[in-house]
Specification:
Blueprint lengths: L30 E2 L9 E4 L5 E4 L2 E5 L5 E5 L12 E9 L5 E5 L5 E2 L2 E2 L4 E6 L10 E2 L16 E8 L2 E6 L2 E7 L9 H7 L6 E5 L5 E11 L2 H5 L3 E7 L18 H9 L1 E7 L5 H10 L10 H4 L7 H6 L4 E6 L15 E2 L14 H13 L5 E6 L11 H5 L16 H9 L4 H28 L6 E7 L38 H4 E7 L8 E3 L4 E2 L3 H9 L14 H4 L10 E3 L9 E4 L2 E4 L9 E4 L15 H15 L11 H10 L4
Parallel strand pairs: 17-21, 17-22, 18-24, 18-25, 19-20, 19-21
Antiparallel strand pairs: 1-16, 2-5, 3-4, 4-16, 5-15, 6-12, 6-16, 7-10, 8-9, 10-11, 12-13, 13-14, 18-23, 22-23, 26-27, 27-28, 28-29
């Protein structure tokens, strides 16, 4: 069956801001162009009989050819807007060819409407190549995000020279008119040069039949139009790739985070830059591998390298950091942070640890509704020691672990739990209670964002600093501690965890929500992203120009916005030790180079073996050699010696606030 397609057209002039004298707008500034009763305020040309109101719906049917219905209010003149947002709810019955027009001329010549101005394609007949949402002849859209036979919503935002199109809250076009139209192709120049205009519905031909339920428009203040998005970065500690229900945990109860994933996009190939806390956080803050710093950031900070917080501050952001730092003795003071909250790991709060951190974050949101803000909310859940309040653990008394519900890579953790005298059921309940407490904290922040009216202009991201902690450190050589049996974090199918460069150590959850920009309910299983990309990507979105050269990360905003992205450079891992073995990931291939303790190289095809159980280095010698060469070239760029701070000295530095 041929897919039914619809066309809708709108024309808007941007050189002045005026409503019809008797027009009425609601308290949010919306002007309802269609009242559901009649066509008051509308004027048809060419074929007036093509438009009618039936059962509260506006019906458009190009009975005799191309027809237009212009909105003129009660003045009989075109109604113009400066910066505006237009919303229309529509559906179609038949295949046709039309779009949303604006920046256009209303000129008639020989009884025909001249197609001047921009056109947003809502759908097209077979002969038209562009899809729903395309900016016709300017910016194409590869795939149609809706079934036009059902009701769908198109939203058009024009802010200065920037044009954005959204279909059912998915952004499909983000276009900025060029400063020099002369350099554009002739057909695009014709659109840009168009002047005059009005709001119009186009019924293109006899095949065009569609309906409107709602058509409304409002002006956008230039201040709101130019304001960059807020950013809320929710960061867990030692949380495994498979520790959330939406990432496959069989018992986890994480409704807030699952809902966040449903309202945004969930990535399955997101990687951090380090296998412990400091190097991972360094990657997010600087866009650089911690292994590039000869003075280890945990003790010395970032040695003069620019951070994402400093860069966003130049764009007018208010910067907050709440929770764990672990990347220098100064707790953010030297990195543009305006306000920071508790950094310790508090116990005893009946709401679970991290409650005070999220309290401070919520207060920061309430105080900064009138300006763009960036906020790190870096909790301690699920870092050792996992020891949840008793009443929270009791909520999971119904959980009895069936080992068959977990992957083979998890079984050794269950074995170690029992070897040290622990109960797998009791340990799992403790761990689930902590994750559930984290989820409840996340819900409080999301509610605060909504209550402040900031949902649409706030990027919310949730992730973890690396994989789950082991039950026993160093393979049991250090013995068990009091709560070791509770460290039952899950990496899903992936092998390894914290301290490992295997997938379970470096692949983590990554969820992003930004209504109208990030597609809701999407799961990206293709794009390979890294915490190193955080700085360049946010700077690109926020309009920061002076991004440092030589970063290890890439601008991956296109992947955030729904395009499967091929990474331009490999990802590397190595600890800050001159004799450490590097690992490299490129596409589906991951190579672990040999070390003195483990001389054999390991190559894995992650597309068929994400658990890294089948070493195929001997079968793919060319791949192994190619990746080895790239890893060795990267290592040659790193320091040959590293300076670190002993734990006792680090505690002293943190207490005094002095630098080494």
């Amino acid at each position: 069956m041929t897919k039914t397609q619809v066309l809708l057209a709108t024309v808007v002039v941007l050189n002045m801001a005026c409503l019809s004298p008797t027009s009425r707008a609601d308290d949010k500034g919306w002007l309802e162009l269609f009242n559901g009763k009649d066509l008051t305020g509308w004027e048809a040309n060419v074929h007036p009989g093509s438009f009618s109101v039936e059962n509260g719906l506006l019906r458009a049917h190009g009975k005799s050819g191309m027809s237009h219905l212009f909105y003129v209010g009660d003045t009989g003149r075109d109604v113009a807007f400066k910066d505006f947002e237009l919303i229309a709810v529509a559906r179609s019955e038949r295949e046709s060819n039309s779009g949303i027009f604006f920046h256009t001329s209303r000129e008639l010549r020989s009884g025909k409407y001249l197609h001047k101005g921009y056109e947003v394609q809502l759908n097209s007949s077979k002969k038209e190549k562009q899809k729903t949402g395309s900016l016709y002849q300017v910016v194409p859209v590869k795939e149609s995000p809706v079934d036009e036979t059902e009701w769908f919503t198109v939203r058009l935002r024009v802010e200065g020279k920037r044009i954005r199109v959204f279909i059912d809250d998915q952004q499909v076009v983000d276009y900025t008119e060029p400063a020099s139209p002369r350099r554009e192709p002739k057909r695009v120049k014709r659109l840009i040069d168009a002047k005059g205009g009005a709001i119009a519905i186009q019924a293109h031909d006899p095949n065009s039949v569609f309906y409107f339920k709602t058509i409304r428009i409002r002006e956008i203040s230039s201040e709101a139009s130019n304001r960059p998005p807020n950013v809320v970065f929710l960061f867990a500690d030692d949380l495994g790739y498979g520790d959330l229900a939406c990432y496959g945990h069989p018992y986890a109860r994480t409704p807030a985070l699952d809902q966040l994933a449903g309202e945004g996009t969930r990535f399955t190939r997101f990687y951090v830059s380090g296998v412990t806390c400091c190097p991972s956080r360094t990657g997010f803050m600087t866009g650089l591998h911690a292994a590039r710093f000869p003075r280890y950031p945990a003790g010395f900070g970032f040695s003069g390298r620019t951070t994402v917080t400093e860069l966003l501050k130049t764009r007018g952001y208010r910067i907050g950091h709440f929770g764990k730092w672990h990347i220098g003795p100064d707790v953010g003071r030297d990195y543009g942070v305006d306000e920071y909250g508790p950094d310790d790991d508090p116990r005893g709060d009946p709401r679970g640890r991290d409650a005070a951190i999220y309290d401070a974050a919520i207060e920061f949101i309430r105080k900064n509704t009138d300006r763009p803000f960036y906020m790190n909310v870096w909790g301690h859940i699920t870092h050792y020691a996992v020891n949840a309040p008793d009443d929270q653990v009791e909520e999971f008394n119904d959980v009895t672990v069936d080992r068959g519900d977990f992957s083979e890579t998890m079984q050794h953790k269950f074995d170690e739990c029992e070897q040290i005298g622990g109960s797998v059921d009791a340990g799992m309940r403790e761990y689930l209670a902590e994750v559930h407490a984290l989820d409840s904290h996340v819900k409080r922040v999301l509610d605060a964002i909504d209550n402040a009216g900031l949902r649409d202009n706030t990027i919310v991201v949730f992730s973890s600093d690396h994989g789950p902690a082991p039950v026993l450190l160093a393979g049991g050589k250090r013995g068990a501690k009091e709560y070791s049996a509770n460290m039952l974090g899950y990496a899903g199918l992936l092998r390894g965890g914290k301290h490992d460069q295997y997938e379970g150590g470096v692949r983590v959850p990554f969820i992003i929500r930004w209504p109208g920009h990030v597609k809701p309910g999407r799961v990206d299983r293709t794009s390979v992203l890294s915490g190193l990309d955080w700085l360049p990507t946010l700077c690109s979105i926020a309009g920061v120009d002076d991004v440092p050269d030589g970063l290890d990360g890439e601008d991956v905003s296109t992947a955030w916005f729904g395009t499967d992205r091929i990474r331009t450079s490999p990802l590397f891992w190595r600890t800050s030790a001159s004799g450490a073995g590097p690992s490299v990931l490129e596409g589906k291939w991951k190579l672990h180079l040999g070390t003195k303790r483990r001389p054999k190289e390991e190559l894995y095809d992650l597309s068929s073996d994400p658990a890294e159980l089948q070493n195929v280095a001997d079968q793919y010698l060319e791949v192994t050699a190619r990746l080895r060469k790239k890893a060795e070239a990267w290592v040659s760029e790193l320091p040959t010696e590293y300076q670190k701070v002993e734990k006792a000295e680090l505690k002293k530095l943190k207490r005094t606030g002095k630098k080494k």
